[in-house]
Amino acid sequence: MPDIPGPIPGTPPRNNTSNSTVRSIPVQRSYYPILLALFVVVFIISNVTATKGVALGPLITDGAFFLFPIAYVIGDVLSECYGFAATRRAIWTGFAAMMLAVASFYIAIALPSAPFYEGQDAFSAALGLVPRIVVASLAGYLVGQLLNSYVLVHMKQRTGEKSLWARLLGSTVVGECGDTLVFCLIAAPVIGIASVGDTVNYTVVGFLWKTAVEVAVMPVTYAVIRFVKNHEGY
């Protein structure tokens, strides 16, 4: 049989697509990225809706009163399932994302409007977050979420897997108290709450409402924690 010639020396090998592979970093099968994304999105939306003062009969609150408890539910799931270090990473990610959102809002407001665009005033009013509101939100967010996660994980070190309800309730009370107190004391004058009585009303109602909602949805928190633990090989 005649010899089959090999490749010419110095020439690159033929591209055999059947044997070639495209290298990529494998994505771990985990619910952590999904929970982190929801956590950050809820925080950013809350900061926009919180600029509106809301009166529900005699109760004074803000437009984010229905969203903040969701952030704490997700924070509880992150803390219980992934620990304090992973939750702290999510908290700082949310902080950085909010800073980016605020910078983007101000840049978009400052850009010159197109001749046909007539919504500049409304756009500025909706997204031109008052610096004091941003400071209040970020400060309350950091204090509340870090306290919530720390208390839950610290209690878990003492109780082990038992008494999940106590960990969720205890961390909620401490975290929501810190968050609401810091945010309301800084933000109340900005949204038009001037008197001491209204400030106390705003703070107490916010704390009680957020805590009550998180307690009410505790069965959902239980179910999500159980689901994540079962699917993450806990």
From TrEMBL:
It comes from the Bacteria. It is found in: Cell membrane. GO terms for molecular function: transmembrane transporter activity. GO terms for cellular component: plasma membrane. It is a multi-pass membrane protein. Keywords: Cell membrane, Membrane, Transmembrane, Transmembrane helix, Transport. Residues 1-12 have a biased composition (Pro residues). The chain crosses the membrane at residues 31-50, 56-78, 90-109, 129-153, 173-195, 207-228. InterPro entries: YhhQ (IPR003744). Residues 1-21 are annotated as: Disordered. Involved in the import of queuosine (Q) precursors, required for Q precursor salvage. Belongs to the vitamin uptake transporter (VUT/ECF) (TC 2.A.88) family. Q precursor transporter subfamily. PANTHER family: QUEUOSINE PRECURSOR TRANSPORTER-RELATED. This is Probable queuosine precursor transporter. It comes from Corynebacterium durum F0235.
